[in-house]
Inverse folding.
């Protein structure tokens, strides 16, 4: 009887071990045959052994084998169900349905355009500089030759913070920061956000992007400024773009010039063009030769060095390049608008 009991326990242990290895319906079937097959199954063999026991021992022994049989059957049955459900899931999946599209994040059109501009200057040997968006009055105005209370300050509607701090109204203060720490030759562009007290409308925003340029070296002339801007604008827009220089005023450049390009929308053919107002020209950037006073403010000798500078609005220029009628579209986060630029 003891030997019989041991056999039952051994059989149960082996089954428990083998059942863990089952990975497919086929191996499940094999396991089933091994234990439950009517001819040479392990349980059939146990029942045969049982017959060799004494008659009074048989009921208990029979109960043991029956319990084992029931456990094995239940276990195999539940395993079968799990295979079934996996199979059914595969059957129910319709692989011909369109997949779920996930949109990846992507660069914003203004940043893409900024990179396009930067690359043109990088190809001309410029490097990129950056500066803080919170500035002091000195860097934003004073060092750039705006005397205190000078009416020129009114052209830059400034958002003042406390303690002499303000949100920079242009990227020009970074010219000063760079010239303070780096001696010429200097050849840089400075992209970044600027802020002005403006009510948003199709051509004005309280926050927008500018790109500043600064070149300082011995013998830099207005011809360098003109040639550089001409190359830049022709590369950015097209070889055919028309451009003109108009006298202008900026406290930090002397002489100063504003640069216009031929209207990209009507090409000067529509007297009622909403972009150029019918003039055929759009103002695209401010520029000039660095004022000697600015050099003095950063301890660069204006007798030895000359330089030119320029500044353009990135969003504004993007508007003309992409022919967008309202600058606010850039910041409304309407994905239907934003996504158009990804395929460019
Ligand atoms: N900072 C000027 C503005 O915001 C643009 C500008 C004009 C920058 C002339 C320059 C420059 O560097 O030389 O309107």
């Amino acid at each position: 009887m003891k030997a019989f009991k041991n056999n039952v326990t051994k059989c149960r242990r082996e089954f428990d071990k083998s059942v863990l290895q089952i990975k497919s319906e086929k191996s499940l079937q094999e396991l089933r045959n091994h234990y439950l097959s009517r001819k040479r199954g392990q349980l059939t063999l146990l029942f045969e052994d049982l017959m060799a026991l004494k008659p009074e021992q048989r009921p208990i022994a029979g109960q043991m084998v029956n319990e084992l049989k029931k456990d094995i059957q239940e276990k195999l049955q539940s395993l079968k169900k799990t295979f079934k459900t996996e199979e059914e899931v595969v059957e129910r999946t319709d692989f011909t349905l369109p997949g779920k599209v996930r949109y990846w994040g992507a660069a914003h059109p203004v940043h893409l355009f900024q990179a396009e501009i930067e690359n043109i200057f990088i190809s001309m040997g410029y490097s990129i500089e950056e500066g803080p968006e919170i500035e002091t009055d000195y860097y934003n105005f004073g060092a750039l030759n705006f005397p205190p209370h000078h009416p020129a300050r009114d052209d830059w509607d400034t958002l003042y913070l406390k303690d002499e701090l303000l949100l920079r109204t242009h990227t020009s203060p970074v010219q000063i920061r760079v010239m303070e720490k780096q001696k010429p030759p200097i050849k840089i562009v400075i992209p970044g956000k600027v802020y002005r007290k403006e009510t948003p409308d199709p051509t004005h925003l309280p926050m927008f992007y500018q790109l500043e340029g600064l070149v300082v070296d011995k013998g830099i002339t207005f011809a360098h400024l003109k040639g550089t801007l001409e190359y830049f604008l022709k590369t950015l827009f097209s070889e055919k773009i028309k451009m003109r220089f108009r006298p202008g005023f900026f406290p930090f450049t002397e002489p100063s010039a504003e640069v216009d390009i031929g209207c990209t929308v009507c090409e000067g053919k529509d007297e009622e063009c909403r972009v150029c107002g019918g003039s055929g020209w759009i103002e695209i950037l401010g520029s000039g030769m660095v004022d000697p006073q600015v050099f003095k403010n950063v301890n660069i000798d204006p007798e030895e060095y000359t330089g030119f500078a320029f500044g353009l609005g990135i969003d504004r220029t993007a508007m003309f390049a992409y022919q967008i009628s309202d600058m606010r579209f850039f910041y409304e986060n309407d994905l239907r608008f934003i996504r158009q630029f990804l395929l460019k």
Q: What stands out?
A: The chain has a mean pLDDT of 90. Residues 170, 172, 212, 250, 253, 256, 286-288, 309-311 surround 3,4-dihydroxyphenylalanine (CB under 6 Å).
